[in-house]
Every structure is written in C-alpha cells, then in structure tokens.
Design brief:
The complex is a heterotrimer of chains A (about 400), B (about 600) and C (about 190). Chain A has about 400 residues and is an alpha/beta fold. Helix content of chain A is about 45%, strand content about 15%. In chain A, the strands form three sheets. Chain A has a five-stranded mixed beta sheet with strand order 6-5-11-8-9. Chain A has a four-stranded parallel beta sheet with strand order 3-2-1-4, with helices on both faces. In chain A, β8 (about 260-265) and β9 form a beta hairpin. The longest helix of chain B has 24 residues, at about 270-295. Chain B is globular, with a radius of gyration of 25 Å. Chain C has two domains: about 1-90, no CATH class; about 105-180, 3-Layer(aba) Sandwich (Glutaredoxin), CATH 3.40.30.10. Chain C is elongated. Classes of the chains: A alpha/beta (about 400), B alpha/beta (about 600), C alpha+beta (about 190). The interface of A and C includes residues 77, 168 and 310 of A.
Chain lengths: ~400, ~600, ~190
C-alpha cells in the first residue's frame, strides 16, 4: 500500500474531449472483444462503490447467449454525501451516453436505460433532447441501440442493482437473491450490464484516449482516478477528480480546516476514519473504498449525532424484507439511544457491535451488510461520545 | 441433466443442477431450520434463518435461495452459524408479541419452536414491537394480528402464486414494512375470497381464523339450547393430526364420540347433505343440458359449475361477476344442512327451531363467511349459527380434557346422519364430480358409471386442472336427447386454476359441460381450516384416506342413501321442486373486481 | 297562506339541496372522469404491462399530487392486477403519496451535511411561515412540508426541493422569499 500524494486529474470533466460521435466511430471500428480487453486491461473497477471489475462484467454479459440484453446506467445516486453523478450528468452527459453505447456494442445489447433518481428530475430538461438526438445519431452510424430514461420514485435501495431491476419491472424495490447475477439474469430476467454513471464515463474515455493514461494513475488494485464529492467542515466543499490510492492524511491536509476529527469515507455505508488513523489509511479498493462521498467532521461535531443520523437513514431506507436489516437497523438505533440515556449500560454497545457483525454476514443485500462499516468504526473510535 | 456434487457437514451429496443447498441437505438428512421457506411456494430468502457457511464466502448464504454449486463445501452448524441464527431469531422475537399464553397458535408456532431451539427470550434486545396494534376482526372468516407477524411474506406469496387473488401485499418499507390489504382496508373490505390459504401457510398467529368455539361452549352449556353439529368429510381424515395420529389417519368413529362427549345434543354428518347436493345438482345439470340441447334456451348457461366451495363462490362474484349464471344454484352441503336442521329436523324431532343451535365443523375458513351471508336464512332463522374449523374442534376436544386416542368408535345420530361413499369423497378435489357422475350417469342410462368399483379414476388426482370425457350411450327413453353426447367435464383446484378455467368460460371458449371448482389446492382436505402445517405430501395422504373411507362404505351412490330417499318422500317431494328451491337453492351477488 | 309559503320554501330548499347534491355528485363524477382520462392517456403512452406501473403512477402524482383510492383502482383495472398490488408497490416509494398532498411539496434534506449547515433553522422558518408542522399540509392545499434523505447537494446545504425545482444554500430568509413568490396571494396576506 503506497501512499500517494493528492493529485487532481481531469479525465472526467474535460469537455474538450467530448466529440461523442468520434468515440463511437472509433469503438465501432474495433471488435467487441477488443473493447472488452481494453476495459479489462485498464483495471477499471465500478465507481458506484461496489468496485466490481468492469471489464470482467462486460465479458460475462457478452458470453451469455441471448438475443435480448440491456445496458443500464445506474444514476440513482443516493448515498449521503454523494453528488458527483449529478455533476457528471449535468456537465458531460454525452460521455455517459457514449459509454452506454460502447457497452451495448461490446455485449450485443439493443436497448439501454438511464435510471435517474426522481430528486434529479431537473436534469431531464436537458437530458431528454440530448438523448433523442444521440439515439438518432448512433442509428445513423449503424449501431442498433436506443437509450430511454426511467425515473426513480424516491428509494435509496433502488441504487442496489437487483432492486433497480425490480423497480423498473413495476414492483417494490426489494433486492433479489443472487445468484443469478445481473450478467446472467437482470432486467426482465435478461443479461444486463448495470454500471454507475462515472464508470461509464471512464469506459468511454478509456476507448477515447487509450488504456495507458488511465492505468498509470492509482495503485495496482485501484487503477485510475475517481470523482469525489466533498462536504462537511471544509472550506473546499465540491467535486474533485483525484487519483486513487491517496492517503486520508493527504486528503485531510487539502480539505480539512485544521481541526478535522474524522472523515467519513463512503457515506453512511462507509467507514469513519478517526484522526489517529489518517496516516495509515488509503482511499481505494485495497484500503477504504468509496462511491465518492467524503464527509469531513471537525472536533465540534458529535459523532453520536452522526451515527444516529446514519442509522435513522438506514432504518428508513431499508426495504424491510430481510430480518437482520429491517430489525437490526432499528435495534442499533434504539440501542445507542438507550445507552446515551442511561437506560442500558455501556456494555450493551458490545452486544450491538456483535449484532452489526451478524447483520454483515446474514443480510440479503449490501445495505444491511454495510451498516456494520459505519457502526463499528464510529462506536469503536468514538465510544465515549456514544456513551456520554 | 447435469449433476452437482457438494459436501454438507462432511457428507457427500449429489443433486440436480438448479437445486438449492437446502434440497441437498434434505437428501442427506441434515436438518436446516427455515421460516420463510414453504414447499408450496416460490423461494423468498428473506428471513435469513436458514443461513449456512459456504467455504470461501465471506458472508453466510441462505440455503433455501442459494443454488448448489460443484465442489461447494458447506457447514450448517458451526458456532458462527449458530450465533448468527440466534441473533436472527432474537431480532424476530424483539418485534413480536410474545404473549404466547393467549395465542391460538401456541404449541404450533414456528417462531416459538425456533426460540426454544436456540434458547432465545425477549430480553436479549429491546422491544421494537409497534405499540397499539389493532387486531383486524372485521372479516367473518379471518383474523389478522400484525403484532405476531414475522414478515416472512408467505401469506402474500400464497395469495399471489397459489390463489392469484392478490388480496394481500407488502406495504411501506424499512421499519414501516408490513403486510397489508389495498389501502390497509380491513379484510372484510378487501377483495378477499376468505379461502384461508394464507392462514394455513402462516408460521405464527398473525393470521388465524375467526374463532367461535367460545360461543359454541356457551350454547352447549345452556340447557334450553339443542346443539346440532355436522361434520364435513375432510374433518375426519385430518382431525387426528392434532390429537396424536399420523397424517392420513381416519378418525371418524372417535371424532363422533368426542363430539358427543363435548355435550353436543346431536352429532350429524354433512356427508348426508353432500348426497343431497348430488341429487339436486345432478338434476340441475340434466335440466340445463335439456334446456340447451333440446329447447335451445340461450338464457341457460353451460358449462355449469359447482357452488359448494364458498371461497370459489366469492372469487367468481368478485372476479367474474358477469358470469354468475354458470354457477349451480345449489347451496353448499353446509348450508343445505343448516336450512334442513331448522325445518325438517326440527319438525321430525319436535324441537322448536328457535332453540336449535346449528354448528358446522368444516375444513374451511370461507364457510364462516358463508354462514353469515344475509340470504342464508331460508329456514326462517340463521341456517347455520356457527361454522367452526377442524382446528377449533381439535381445541375443544383438548379443552374438554378428552384422551382422544382412548375413545371408542361412535356412530352418527339420526336423522341426517347417514351418508354414502359419494358424500365422503366431496373432500377430495374431483370428488364432487365423481359423486355427481355416479348418480347422473345412472339416472340417464339406468346403469353404473363404466368404471371399476365406481371409481371414476380420470377425475382423480392433484393436478391443478384435469379433464375427462364420458360418452353417454344407451340412454333411458326419457333422456334420449343425450344419446351419443360426449360429456366433457373439468376439475380445477386452487383459485389460480379456477381463474384459468373461467378465463376460457368468459371468452366463450370453454369446451366443457360441467366443471368442479374447489378454491383450495387438493380440494377441501387442503382447506383453510385444516390442521397446520400443510404440504403436498400431507394433502396426498388425506386424499388417500378419503378414498379409503369411500371404499369402506356399503352404499356408494348418493341416490341410494335411505335417509335421502326418505327426505324426498316425506319432505322435499322432488328434486328441484318447490320446497327444494326454497331451502336448498340460493342466489349470488356481484362484487367489485378491483 | 303561511303554511303554503312554508311549504313552498321547503320545496324550494329541497330542490336546492337536491341540485347541490347533484352538483357534488357530478363534480365527483367529473373528477373521476378526469382521472380515468389521465390514466387512459398514461397507459397509451407507457403501455399496460406491469413494467409500466411506475411511470403511470408518477404521471398521476405529477397531475393530481397524490394517488387516490379511485385512481389506484383505475390503474389496477388498466394493468389487470389487483388494487393491493398497485398500493403495495406505490407505498414503497417516498414520492408516490397515497394521502392527499399540497400543490407544492417542499422536501427539506435532513441528512447530516445539511443538518450541519443549518437545516433546523430553515425548517423552523418554514413551519412558522406556513403555520404547519413538519409532515403536514396547509389547509388551502398549497404546500406540504416533508423531510427527505440526501438530495445530492451536500456542499451547498441546507437544501430543499419544491416539486422538481432545487434550491440550495437556503437561509430562513431566502426560504420565505421563495415560498412567497410561489404563492403570493395566500402567504403575503398571512
């Protein structure tokens, strides 16, 4: 694990490299297998937070023998503290469309959707005409692929891939049992690629500028750069594309205000890094992964309030179908309140930590499995603030 | 067919591709506890009780929902698994009303069993049971208590997959997630058929039948009241399951004795009125056939469909309200029995009908609603005062402190206590059809149905929809218009199959003359009032018992029942006659579809 | 004559009452017919398969602010699914309301970054101006105030969404200005 210095990068938002149709033409001149090999070689991993190797995902979908396949762009950005997909869709939406089209060509899909959270409806005004034009243009280039919009209706869990499919199929957004995985049976039970907005932009850029500019950034396990959304006790709140593999201390040096007590990496589903660990944690898939959310807390903030906020979020947004998540989130929240108010002894926190562990290994989907991340990192590192 | 080889708890096992870890475990007799899983339903994988360790995986896997993979190494009972299961059970208990002492499902509750097995009480975590949950007692048939719901969604899946009624749904999310009806309306306002399949698939006391045995105890204890109980055919092949007998044991004799020992004044047999239903319905069918074939009367509808299943009747009233003309106008055996109890029986026994309390013991939840239908008082009084389920009778027998296995066999009282094999087979899917054919064929041809031992095998079985064709030849002169007719019949069990049959009827494409529909899978033996649990194996055994009961009867055709012959001679005069129409036939009501 | 007059008054009043009832029923029928037309158009646009359910429900909410019992029944009819299935699906999503909502739905972000930026002061100001509490709707059905989870503007909190319009860095004063602009008639009077 090599600590990288903070390095700002400009692959995503550089509009000069827009020329969507040129990139499509380039892709169409390649064979689908070549495209997939390039994505694999780049080492790109999903930028939504889960970090699955993108090239491998595309390869699996291509290998499925089915006439009907789908490409879905997951724009249901809902992780607290994440706002980078909104920015991408606002500033460089055509790169997203290009990424989808390249994927469709590579795997053999004819239909694509952008699942956009309802809270971002204001983007539709510009997106809809852009998509209409894009659809026409790529048909003219000989690529049989059409993109449509699909609006979410206010449910964080629909950012989970199988819950997203359920939602698109007109049902409650309850995550499915896996296997089968989306590449085998996703939307409408067909092979589906579902990628995050940012991932698709990187795919289009890798085809545009080649593998090397991307590959030389980051670390072995966290190749490339990533867009971060920074908020909280910082004078530099906003969107930044940075090289992956940076140390948390480097991050705090740049974005903290001199009094940073903790950094929440990855939102409510992420890890809370306390001051004492800034030096020995890096931001990346081998260290602390994130979908982009970076929240900075200074010493005036109560970590009890932070944890309470996250647990209230999960308790509300849980789909409710599986026991560990539905009841576990309620128990964790009620539990820390009871400890705070003296209704339960502080040793009860140990029982709650074990419960969070159980939730991690028994929950049906990533939501329930991730509660443990913030719960244990905050309780273990800020125990006094939880109790007193 | 490819085979998957895996190892479970150090035992090697092979399964077909597509089967789950749970299937594999069953094959080697490794018991993995489950809760949301049910053999009748599709996989849910949401309770997380059945989690197991799979080597190489970080998280535990739900064995009911994880396909077996080649080379998997699985451990089902490590400390990691046991601790996880303990936590999951404890979480369920923490959102549960744990007052087991007053719960109807106590001693037969899957959560209670799991809590006992894993030694969990409600002190492990804080209670997150929502306060002030009101029990929904709006329906005559089903009671819903959300404080006992473990949110396994078995009821929703049952109402969706088995019955395709979709009266129940999951609403809200997160901590507000619950099982509801449309707009969370009380059950009596939902498009619900009262079939009670949700009740017998519920693992806890969240969904139960409305219970009326306290009122029956009161009536029994009241000297002024004359309590008459009649028992459906399906009760006698299932009651034993609650009282120490293996599935499929026929306990008819002991059941009758037990009921007499409860203090019931007269223990009679609904199979009697089942025989009666055959006479009335058989003649109704023949009359319709005549009107359609000879008179070309377009107002008469074919196919004619049976009407003894009240869950099915409410279903067609809601979903196909424009096709009620296909239903036989005959009441169900229960309701025929009730009407006759307070007229014929009362007259013969010299008892004032206002002092008679008629109680029906049924395998059915919908019969409770049927008994309360406003039109069901042709006797001048409420024809059936209370419908009890097989389960309620079982409870009453336990409450009376009877040692059921030690009772001697008793016989039904008279009048209205004699029945034939044709009456008893009503309990199995296809039974009404077979009974009707045994009588109708003989009426038309003067001969027995052309099947060995009167066993019309083509209509038997458990498939959802079955069909048969019977050629009518050498008719008696009166029925010559049926000469050469190939009578096409169909049998459907489970409302999802009823819907398929009715879609054909509604489209005018049904090729059948006569259809039997039972709301419940397996027919009445799988009814919403039968002992819990249920599965295909159990239903199969109960059906076998029904046909065994039929074979043991000396008389096997409804029209040969001497009490039936007597009631027509002395009271009803003739099938479809004036008195029959008043007491034994009914009308139906159009209801909202959505 | 007095009796005659009284009788006439009673008769006239009966006629008036009957006319009023007829108008109410006609209005209700009119509203129902409007709903039916809306749903018919939405089904034409999105199709009548189960996959069309969410777009159809969104279309109804966009027009009528919420999903009434009758509109959900109409959707059930159109898609040939049970009304319980429509309700069960709708109730999952926080933007598909099954209770009447105001014409302008104010959603204030309650996630931690916005809390740290002063969300509570914003809420208090709105509650004071509209004379309602969080979760309620004004009597004239112009505004509903609800809390929502992260809206995706964490660097510019506190944030509120009014229908589809986003407002960032909303101070209490700014909020008052925005709401008065939306509904000048009712708010400036109060």
């Amino acid at each position: 694990m090599k600590n990288k210095g903070l390095k700002k990068v400009d692959i995503i938002f550089d509009c000069a490299s827009c020329e969507p149709l040129e990139v499509i033409k380039k892709a169409l001149s390649m064979k689908p297998d070549e495209i997939i090999d390039q994505i694999i070689s780049s080492g790109l991993k999903g930028r939504g937070g889960a970090g699955f190797p993108t090239g491998l995902k595309w390869k699996l979908a291509k290998e499925e023998d089915n006439d009907i396949k789908y490409v879905i762009c997951n724009a249901d950005e809902g992780e607290p503290g994440t706002f980078k997909d909104r920015e991408i869709l606002d500033v460089v939406p055509s790169k997203v469309l290009v990424g989808m089209a390249i994927c469709a060509y590579a795997i053999g899909a004819k239909e694509g959707f952008i699942y956009l959270r309802n809270e971002y409806n204001f983007l539709l005004k510009d997106l809809l005409p852009l998509i209409e034009k894009f659809n026409q243009n790529i048909q003219n280039l000989g690529l049989d692929f059409t993109i449509k919009m699909f609006s979410g209706s206010g449910a964080y869990i629909c950012g989970e891939e199988s819950a997203l499919f359920e939602s698109m199929e007109g049902k409650r957004g309850e995550p499915r049992n896996k296997p089968p995985y989306p590449t085998k049976a996703g939307y409408n039970g067909k092979p589906t690629i579902i990628n995050n907005v940012e991932t698709l932009v990187y795919c289009s850029m890798i085809i545009r500028i080649g593998v090397e500019p991307f590959k030389k950034l980051g670390t072995t396990d966290s190749r490339g750069s990533k867009v971060f959304s920074v908020s909280g006790d910082t004078a530099k709140a906003g969107i930044y594309e940075l090289e992956l593999g940076i140390g948390v201390d480097e991050f705090v040096k740049e974005f903290g205000n001199g009094d940073t007590k903790a950094v929440q990496v990855g939102g409510a589903s992420g890890h809370c890094v306390p001051r004492k660990d800034f030096k020995n944690k890096i931001i990346g898939f081998e260290g602390i992964p994130t979908g982009g959310s970076m929240m900075v807390f200074n010493s005036s903030r109560s970590m009890y309030n932070v944890l309470k906020d996250y647990l209230e979020f999960f308790e509300e947004e849980s789909c409710g179908q599986c026991t560990p998540c539905r009841v576990g989130t309620q128990q964790l929240l009620k539990g820390i309140k009871a400890v705070k108010h003296g209704e339960k002894p502080s040793s009860y926190l140990n029982q709650l930590l074990k419960l969070a562990e159980t939730m991690k290994i028994t929950s049906k989907c990533g939501l329930g499995q991730s509660v443990h991340n913030s719960f244990s990192s905050i309780v273990k590192n800020f125990r006094e603030e939880i109790i007193y | 067919m490819s085979t998957i080889n895996l190892i479970i708890d150090n035992k090697k096992v092979s399964v077909e591709k597509g089967q789950t870890i749970l299937d594999a475990a069953k094959k080697v007799n490794v018991r993995i506890p489950t809760l949301c899983h049910h053999e009748d339903l599709c996989v849910a994988g949401n309770c997380r009780i059945c989690v197991v360790e799979v080597e190489g995986h970080n998280t535990l896997s739900a064995s009911c929902a994880t396909p077996a993979d080649e080379g998997m190494v699985i451990k089902t009972n490590t400390p990691k698994v046991r601790n996880a299961r303990k936590d999951v059970v404890a979480l369920l208990v923490s959102e549960h009303n744990t007052q087991c002492t007053t719960c109807y499902r106590s001693m037969n509750c899957e959560l209670q069993e799991l809590s006992a097995e894993y030694n969990i009480d409600n002190n492990r975590y804080l209670s997150v049971l929502k306060p002030d949950i009101e029990i929904d007692r709006s329906s005559w048939s089903i009671e819903k208590d959300d404080s006992k719901c473990v949110r396994c969604q078995r009821c929703v899946r049952t109402c969706a997959e088995l019955q395709h009624v979709n009266a129940l749904t999951v609403s809200g999310k997160g901590k507000d997630m619950k099982i509801s009806t449309f707009m969370d309306l009380p059950l009596n306002e939902a498009v619900c058929t009262n079939c009670g399949q949700c009740v017998i698939h519920c693992p806890t006391g969240a969904l139960t039948e409305r219970r009326y045995y306290d009122k029956v105890w009161e009536a029994i204890g009241n000297d002024k009241k004359h309590v008459v109980m009649n028992t459906a055919p399906s009760v006698r092949v299932a009651l034993g399951e609650m009282l120490g007998y293996p599935v499929g044991t026929r306990v008819t004799g002991k059941m009758v004795t037990a009921m007499k020992r409860l203090g019931v004044d007269s223990v009679l047999d609904t199979d009697f009125s089942a025989d009666l239903t055959i006479i009335e319905e058989g003649h109704e069918l023949l009359q319709r056939l005549k009107k359609v074939i000879v008179d070309k009367d377009e107002s008469v509808k074919l196919p004619m469909i049976t009407s003894c299943s009240p869950g099915w009747v409410k279903f067609i009233e809601h979903i196909f309200p424009d096709h009620l003309g296909h239903l036989s106008t005959c009441k169900s055996p229960q309701q025929m029995f009730g009407a006759l109890t307070k007229t014929y029986y009362a007259e013969k026994k010299g008892i004032d009908p206002k002092d008679i309390v008629s109680v029906a013991i049924m395998p059915c939840a919908a019969k409770k609603f049927e008994a309360r239908r406003p039109e069901m008082k042709d006797s001048g009084y409420r024809d059936i005062d209370a419908g009890l389920t097989t389960r309620e009778l079982g409870h009453m027998i336990k409450q009376a402190g009877l040692d059921f296995t030690d009772l001697e066999d008793g016989t039904y009282d008279s009048i209205m206590g004699e029945s034939t094999g044709a009456g008893v087979i009503f309990g199995a899917t296809g039974g009404v059809m077979e009974a009707a054919l045994r009588t109708a064929y003989e009426i038309v041809t003067g001969r027995d149905v052309p099947f060995d031992n009167l066993n019309v095998l083509p209509v038997r079985g458990m498939e959802g929809i079955r069909e048969a064709t019977i050629k009518i030849e050498n008719c008696l002169p009166e029925w010559s218009f049926l000469e050469g007719v190939e009578l096409k019949v169909a049998i459907a069990n489970g409302l999802i199959n009823a819907r398929k049959i009715m879609d054909e009827v509604a489209a005018g494409k049904s090729p059948y003359h006569f259809i039997e529909v039972m709301a419940c899978p397996g027919g009445c033996i799988g009814g919403g009032g039968q002992p819990i649990p249920t599965n295909e194996e159990i239903r199969k055994k109960r059906i076998e018992a029904i046909y065994a009961e039929d074979m043991d009867k000396t008389i096997r055709k409804s029209h040969e029942n001497p009490e039936i012959i007597k009631i027509y001679k002395e009271f009803l005069k003739e099938p479809l006659g004036h008195i029959s129409h008043k007491l034994l036939h009914t009308t139906y009501k159009k209801r909202n579809r959505y | 004559m007095t009796i005659n007059l009284c009788f006439q008054i009673v008769v006239v009043n009966s006629i008036t009452i009957n006319k009023y009832i007829c108008e109410r029923i006609n209005n209700k029928n009119f509203i129902m017919v409007q709903s039916e037309n809306l749903i018919r158009n939405l089904v034409e646009k999105h199709g009548n398969s189960r996959n069309s359910l969410l777009p159809i429900l969104q279309g109804i909410v966009a027009d009528e602010n919420y999903l009434s019992e009758s509109s959900m029944v109409e959707v059930a009819k159109a898609l040939d699914i049970s009304s319980a299935e429509v309700y069960g699906t709708a109730s999952f999503y926080s933007f598909l309301y099954t209770k009447p909502m105001g014409k302008n739905i104010i959603r204030v972000c309650k996630t931690i970054s916005c809390k740290m930026a002063g969300k509570q002061e914003l809420v208090t100001a709105i509650e004071k101006l509209l004379k309602i509490k969080m979760g309620e709707t004004t009597r004239n059905m112009q505004f509903s105030l609800i809390e929502t989870n992260c809206l995706g503007w964490c660097h510019k909190g506190p944030v509120m969404l009014i229908n589809d319009e986003i407002y960032t860095e909303v101070s209490p004063e700014k909020a008052v200005k925005i709401l008065c602009e939306i509904d000048p008639q009712h708010l400036t009077n109060s």
